[in-house]
């Protein structure tokens, strides 16, 4: 069976979102066990000029909902970006998972050369589907997932790389 | 043109290794400009029980040389893992890039269902080629690249996410 755009995207996105959800659960449990205000973790940053954890999770989920929608040629779901608690971040992850699950392989397969435009304020990036997935979505998704992990790790939450990858 | 195992691996690995090399160059230049001993960066860690930068770069490069070799069904090149300076880390990255460039699309394509075994001490992980690439190599590769970035960012090197992704 040869590789498809769907297989290269949605199943691993879902897998990594599941790992992210489990990491946030461990952080919430750690906060409760140590009587730490959970907002310290949710607002935690690696440096003052990097985004806080909540924004890292927002961008990571944006990357994959945007990818699923753009490769499928459907509208990108819009979220309010106002999550401020672990429960709200978990709800955002669940909503993203449900959206990814709603997109079928038939919608995404064959999108290798689909023209994709991504807008950020006044900037506009143009890709074909395959480069969009491999050069933009996957690096950005993992960047924000790993930074979420690092913020928590740096703040003493007991997690390890196996929580990130799910295997090693 | 439909997606292949080669396209899903080697070109993005080479691209990210180029970005990593540029990030380490910026860190070396920062050390020189600020009269900081570069070994402080090379040995820098996000927390005492996480690997130092040198090991992060070693594992990131291990991930992709292992992937190229295993998907192609050839021997994984063995490196001494003794890099202790930016110049030595750059040499390792260059050696990895040259190895990735030496593996052809014809060797890697069709490896979706190739059985892959990865050994770590007494542990053994078994995958088929496609799951090995997407569930193991890509998450681990980006995890160690982003952690390298975060160590330098945390130590005040002036880099941004565009240095990581190369586009946004």
From TrEMBL, chains A, B:
Domain of life: Bacteria
Record-linked Gene3D superfamilies: dinb family like domain (1.20.120.450)
Coiled-coil region: none
Organism of provenance: Methyloprofundus sedimenti
Taxonomic lineage from the root: Bacteria, Pseudomonadati, Pseudomonadota, Gammaproteobacteria, Methylococcales
Name of this chain's protein: DUF1993 domain-containing protein
Alphabetized Pfam families for the sequence: DUF1993
InterPro entries linked to this entry: DinB/YfiT-like, DUF1993
């Amino acid at each position: 069976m040869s590789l498809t755009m769907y297989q290269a995207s949605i199943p691993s996105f879902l897998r990594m979102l599941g790992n992210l959800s489990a990491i946030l659960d461990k952080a919430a449990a750690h906060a409760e066990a140590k009587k730490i205000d959970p907002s310290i973790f949710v607002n935690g940053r690696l440096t003052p000029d990097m985004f806080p954890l909540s924004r890292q999770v927002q961008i990571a989920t944006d990357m994959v909902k945007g990818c699923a929608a753009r490769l499928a040629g459907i509208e990108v779901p819009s979220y309010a970006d106002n999550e401020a608690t672990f429960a709200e971040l978990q709800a955002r992850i669940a909503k993203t998972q449900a959206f990814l699950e709603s997109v079928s392989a038939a919608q995404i397969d064959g999108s290798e050369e689909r023209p994709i435009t991504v807008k950020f304020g006044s900037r506009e990036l143009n890709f074909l589907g395959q480069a969009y997935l491999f050069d933009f979505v996957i690096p950005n998704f993992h960047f924000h997932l790993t930074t979420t992990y690092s913020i928590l790790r740096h703040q003493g939450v007991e997690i390890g790389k196996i929580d990130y990858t799910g295997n090693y």
